[in-house]
Amino acid sequence: MEKKYGTIAIENNKLESFDNRTLNRRYKVEFTCPEFTCLCPRSGFPDFATLYISYVPDQKCVELKSLKLYINGFRNENVFHEDVTNRILNDLVELLNPWELKVVGDFTVRGNIKTVITSYHRKEENRDKWVLNYT
């Protein structure tokens, strides 16, 4: 069976950035990804979540189509909630080196347990610093 063009695009996903054209001020960019899926590494059952990504760009911004394909790339991956949320944060920090970046994985209830993972990065003026923010 021949693969569909969407499947091929997701398999070949690569996060991309473009130059921030508004360097004269800091501003926040927010994304909501309400159809995130991955697989439970223990059971293989699908996990569903809404991802909330927000960042304050420095020199780079994330290109939206590449973000969409990247996020969809997790649909067949066996990964824990904590790991996937932190991996998305790490990949975006590596790509963008933003002033601030937060990723929230709000996972659908499974087995009577609701899981929300929040991972946060803040860059100081002269160095990078990882900060866990529970607010």
Summary of the model, kept short:
The protein is an alpha+beta fold and 135 residues long. It has helices spanning 5-11, 64-72, 81-96, and strands at 17-19, 29-39, 46-56, 60-62, 100-110, 113-123, 128-130. The protein has three helices and seven strands.
Descriptive overview:
With about 140 residues, the protein is of the alpha+beta class. The protein contains three helices and seven strands. It has a single domain (about 5-130), classed as GTP Cyclohydrolase I, domain 2 (2-Layer Sandwich). Helix content is about 25%, strand content about 40%. The strands form two sheets. It has a five-stranded antiparallel beta sheet with strand order 2-3-5-6-7, covered by helices on one side. It has a two-stranded antiparallel ribbon with strand order 1-4.
What key phrases describe this protein's structure?
alpha+beta, GTP Cyclohydrolase I, domain 2, 39% strand
Report the top-level CATH class: Alpha Beta
Q: Give the class from helix and strand content and strand pairing.
A: alpha+beta
Give the end-to-end Cα distance, rounded to a whole number of Å: 48 Å
Uncertain regions spanning at least 5 consecutive residues: none
Largest sheet composition: 5 strands, antiparallel
Q: How many distinct helices? A: 3
Average pLDDT level: 93
* SS elements, strand count: 7
CATH architecture: 2-Layer Sandwich
Name the overall outline: globular
Strands in their spatial order, largest beta sheet: 2-3-5-6-7
CATH superfamily: GTP cyclohydrolase I, C-terminal domain/NADPH-dependent 7-cyano-7-deazaguanine reductase, N-terminal domain
